[in-house]
């Protein structure tokens, strides 16, 4: 069954299986396990519910800078973020009908541009420092 609209409840139904896929992914799983560990997953998922609530429902529940948080993770690289976005898109397409899935896709395109810009900045900074 695909959801016809985005609500707090349907966001949770998306986030949980998506991060299950991330944790099982051979590329992303080890990065997330190292950065979050088993004991902090419930808190991370709660933060992701707030993030997607802010993005999709404009609730303002999320307070933070996701790009800065991810750029601080040791070993993360731009292709990994692209993989994360691809998995998220597949999961959103699976759980949501065409119209809400298209909104998720639009948000992902914006995230991809932001990630590319942030990764370029980090690479420049590392080059200047190192």
Q: Would you kindly provide a written description of the structure presented here, covering whatever features stand out?
A:
The protein is built from 6 helices and no strands. The longest helix is centred in the C-terminal third of the chain and has 32 residues, at 98-129. The chain is globular, with a radius of gyration of 15 Å. With 130 residues, it is mainly α. Mean pLDDT is 83; it is low at 114-130. 76% of the residues lie in helices and 0% in strands. The protein has one domain (8-129): Globins (Globin-like, Orthogonal Bundle), CATH 1.10.490.
How are the elements arranged and paired?
Elements: H1 8-24, H2 28-36, H3 41-57, H4 66-71, H5 78-95, H6 98-129
Low-pLDDT regions: 114-130
Residue share in helices? Answer: over 70%
CATH architecture: Orthogonal Bundle
Overall pLDDT metric: 83
Structural class by secondary-structure content: mainly alpha
| CATH topology tier name | Globin-like
Work out the radius of gyration.
15 Å
Keywords:
globular; mainly alpha; Globin-like; 130 residues
Summarize the structure.
By secondary structure, the protein is mainly α. 76% of the residues lie in helices and 0% in strands.
């Amino acid at each position: 069954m695909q959801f016809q609209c985005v609500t707090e409840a349907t966001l949770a139904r998306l986030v949980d299986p998506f991060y299950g896929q991330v944790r099982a992914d051979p590329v992303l799983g080890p990065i997330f396990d190292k950065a979050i560990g088993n004991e902090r997953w419930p808190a991370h998922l709660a933060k992701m519910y707030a993030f997607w609530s802010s993005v999709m429902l404009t609730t303002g529940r999320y307070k933070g800078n996701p790009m800065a948080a991810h750029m601080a993770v040791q070993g993360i690289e731009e292709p990994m973020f692209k993989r994360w976005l691809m998995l998220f898109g597949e999961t959103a397409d699976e759980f949501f009908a065409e119209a809400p899935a298209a909104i998720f896709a639009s948000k992902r395109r914006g995230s991809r541009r932001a990630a590319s810009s942030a990764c370029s900045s980090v690479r420049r900074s590392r080059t200047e420092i190192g």
